[in-house]
Amino acid sequence: MAGHADKIYLVTGGAQGIGRAIVEYLLRQDASVAFVDRDVEAGEELAASLDLPERAAFFAADVGDEQEVRSCVAQSLARFGGLDGLVNNAGIANPTRQPLTELRLEDWERVLRVNLTGAMLMAKHAAPHLQRRHGAVVNIASTRALQSEPDTEAYTASKGGLVALTHALAISFSHRIRVNAVLPGWIEVSELRKQSERSAARLRPEDHDQHPAGRVGLPGDVAALAAFLLSEEAGFITGQAFVIDGGMTRKMMYVN
Hints:
alpha/beta; Rossmann fold; globular
């Protein structure tokens, strides 16, 4: 994909999984990428494996902490001198399922603080720099914003809120910054975890077959879409939510 050479991007939750795939994709397109993660071990491991100190930099931060967000944006600007795009990918990806009657308020608040408030804080502090270059924001939400499994209220609410935040920001930033959301379905990320937690994917034929596209999603699928939405080729797209789930949200399922 053209259009990323000499661009500068900031990716949160960039040390593992989908975030890592986005970081690596953008670097292959000759962009410079600052990636943020709370997991220092994973971030330093990825930075070492990339071995691109002139174009890739890792900063440790909790996106739910405004002081740390402010600091990581400042560090990124100091390192690369500008900002063309922000990818809000950081989130609590595997929430513990608890019946609502047993859900602790602190657990609810923690998921929303990271998954939703974190994206707001990153957009808040990155916006002045993005608007100078008419940049773009991509929020990584989830198909859980559209459909649910039992006992996932906090995660589902956070992702639904992220979709709503996307179109709110798109209107608030009109003419200055484009903002879109990507809603992944089942994306297999086992092989993109840090070394101490990495494992081979354990997928059955029926896991692939249930998807109308014929397979489970790959992190690169999401990375390619995010990169397109960051690019000038997507210059007429803003305020939108793009589902990338192999067709699963269009599939009616009944118990026979």
